What we know:
Blueprint: E1 3-6, H1 19-27, E2 30-33, H2 36-45, E3 52-54, H3 60-73, E4 77-81, H4 94-102, E5 106-109, H5 115-123, E6 131-135, H6 140-152, E7 157-162, H7 167-177, E8 182-187, E9 195-200, H8 201-210, E10 219-224, H9 230-250, H10 255-264, H11 270-287
Parallel strand pairs: 1-4, 1-5, 2-3, 2-4, 6-7
Antiparallel strand pairs: 7-10, 8-9, 8-10
Helix pairs in contact: 3-4, 7-8, 9-10, 9-11, 10-11
Amino acid sequence: MSKLYVVPTPIGNLGDMTNRAVETLKACDLILAEDTRHTQKLLNHFNIKTKMISYHKFNEKQRSEELIHKLLNEEINAALVTDAGTPCISDPGYELVRAVREKGIEVIGLTGASALTTALSISGIETYEFAFYGFLPRKKSELDLALKRVLKNPVKTFVFYESPKRILNLVENIKFHMPNSILCVCKELTKLHEKTFYGNVDDVLEQLNKHDEVEKGEYVIVGYNNDYHEQEISSYKVGIHGILFDKLIKNEYSLKEAVNEAAEDGIASKNEAYKASLEIKKVIEKLR
């Protein structure tokens, strides 16, 4: 039976490549890579000879169809990799995984490098729940809307990815919308010139402006939104039960649909909405 393996690769330090990842890539019949030239260097380093083809956002549909045909008609195993880190996290791949799953083909994930989890682990910022936004829009008006959405989200820990040329602009905009936020800005994680900038947004902006090579390397920003006041959160917690009831009755939603829409609308975090739905479920069961 054919399988698709989702294989993380190092985000900078080749020592982070796991033995299982190397063995899997060697054992597979085909590797799908975001940039074959970039991945070829990795394969050469670990003496991996497996055939490789490109899989990126511009050929996702075509490649997905080709691969599914192979997996269904040939006894092969394929591996999906990205340029760095875990595939499908702000990188191409989820459409392929979804299509493969819908055809009943087994998908197996490996643990490994991820800029997202690495940054969270060293941030010193609360990580019990967090909202990951990937790369925010470049256009000023769209960036403002995105940051307003972050500001309104009751999940207070947020994570962004950003390129070196836009990092100062992003932190300046964070300061405008969330002036009391705490940030840990991580640069070049796991690489030789890894550096972090931590503190309130004013301090971090000052540190970045003083950094000679601020416009080099890739960034992950972990932040905690202190501008979403506790009073506001409490009012959402009080009102979430009524909002869910309204969605159940007016829209004829299931509890699951009501919870999902409340979370998408930023009315409450998914955890809060889910807890409220359990309490509503108990009430409904008692009335039956």
